[in-house]
Amino acid sequence: MLGNYLYLGFILITAIVGYLVKSLSKSGAAATVLVGVSVLLGFELAGLLLLGVFFASSSFWSKFKASKKKHVEEKLQKGDARDWQQVLANGGIAAIASCIHFFTPSELSLFVFIVSIAAANSDTWASEIGVLSKQRPFYILHLRSVERGTSGAVSLLGSTAAVLGAGLIAVFAVVLFGLPWHPWLLLAVLFGFLGNLFDTLLGALIQARFRCRKCGLETEKTVHCGESTGLIKGCRWFNNDVINASAIALASICALLSFKMFNS
Prior knowledge:
By secondary structure, the chain is mainly α.
């Protein structure tokens, strides 16, 4: 019982520190507590530490060389202080898997939990590190170079970061949960990276993009230069948060189906 209170205190401190260092907004801190408590219920300390690895590493890369990312921020929907929508988009599937595991513990719910975090970390690393590439990225649909920060674009640096981001979560998951290295490590990396690919494809195909009516900038923002922007591509309600949540959900579903197939 004492341990649970200590873990709850750890969740609260993490949320508060995240808010103080501007990695989280107030709503993001509240959502972090909600996700953290769910993970604590389902996977106890091991799950909480794995979630912490994602939060710490993604927060680090979002702050890394922030001044060099300023030119990209105008194109993005939100800044690096995550609000509740961003937190739930990245941690919602993990929270659901945790609640399911709390009532009916199984390797399947554990696998989905690990893959969802690996996918979130893979995509975050790809986004935060990829924009620092010296080479212009390529649009995934036509392979022509585009501006950095364009949804649906890929680069060698970003793709490498995506694999490493998924790999970090996979390694910690195997160690923390005492899992066999084979095949858990490979599968977690594979489906985690798949989540990043889904995010890229959805970003290229259906993510909403707008154009500023004043300066002409193509952006994810619905308001720019003090005026509402005009939709030029994609579905209006498919913003970055919806894309992230959808990509992680798709990767988790693929992991679930493959797990059932190989264990049938």
